[in-house]
């Protein structure tokens, strides 16, 4: 009898925890200074694997609200990637689209994609910076040679920018994105929270688009 009561108690605790977690996700306050943009990824299911500082990831102040996003490929894709390399990873080569209307401020396109298990350098990541309406968007870790825009070019919302790669300091192919504005008077960069289509994402959240 005691075992049954204990089991029921455990089930109730787990159920309450799941309910609270789901409720808190649906009722998270969105920061008042959040920048709302369109999803930078399409045609699939995606997961935010990092959001803000976590361990030794996103430790720079400018990355306070940074997100790392992967395309979901299931457990089969994970094992294929470990065995066969980058081309078998679900995220690798996935198109990335501009989440806002703006002007391309800088492009880095020539660094190689690193293999899993090799520690790349943060400075050797292919990236695109887009200046939008009062803020800047930095998109990082693109596949070598995949960037489809040029510095100075005007980009539209939904225009292809590049493809997900594994350049720079990257444990696996993913899209890194963070947003900031510049205080001209002090020449400092101020990180800004991000929402996609009005939704505020945390580590572990997913979306389909």
TrEMBL record:
Membrane spanning residue stretches: 5-21
Key words of the record: Membrane, Transmembrane, Transmembrane helix
Coiled coil: none
Domain of life: Bacteria
CDD domains: M23_peptidase
Keyword Transmembrane on entry: yes
Domain M23ase beta-sheet core: 84-185
Molecular-function GO term, any one: metalloendopeptidase activity
Database matches in InterPro entries: Cell_wall_metabolism_enzyme, Dup_hybrid_motif, M23ase_b-sheet_dom
SUPFAM superfamilies on file: Duplicated hybrid motif
Keyword Membrane assigned: yes
Stated name of the protein: Peptidase m23
Organism: Candidatus Berkelbacteria bacterium Licking1014_7
């Amino acid at each position: 009898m005691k075992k049954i009561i204990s089991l029921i108690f455990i089930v109730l605790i787990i159920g309450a925890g799941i309910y609270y977690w789901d409720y808190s996700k649906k009722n998270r306050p969105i920061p008042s200074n959040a920048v709302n943009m369109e999803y930078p990824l399409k045609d699939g299911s995606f997961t935010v694997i990092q959001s803000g500082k976590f361990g030794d990831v996103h430790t720079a102040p400018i990355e306070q609200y940074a997100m790392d996003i992967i395309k979901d490929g299931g457990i089969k894709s994970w094992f294929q990637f470990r065995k066969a390399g980058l081309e078998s990873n679900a995220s690798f080569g996935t198109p990335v689209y501009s989440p806002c209307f703006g002007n391309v401020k800088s492009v880095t396109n020539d660094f190689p994609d690193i293999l899993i298990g090799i520690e790349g350098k943060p400075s050797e990541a292919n990236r695109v910076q887009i200046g939008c309406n009062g803020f800047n968007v930095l998109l990082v870790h693109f596949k070598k040679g995949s960037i489809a825009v040029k510095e100075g070019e005007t980009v539209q919302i939904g225009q292809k920018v590049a493809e997900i790669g594994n350049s720079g300091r990257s444990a696996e192919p993913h899209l890194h994105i963070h947003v900031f504005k510049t205080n001209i008077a002090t020449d400092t960069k101020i990180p800004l929270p991000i929402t996609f289509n009005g939704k505020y994402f945390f580590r572990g959240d997913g979306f389909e688009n």
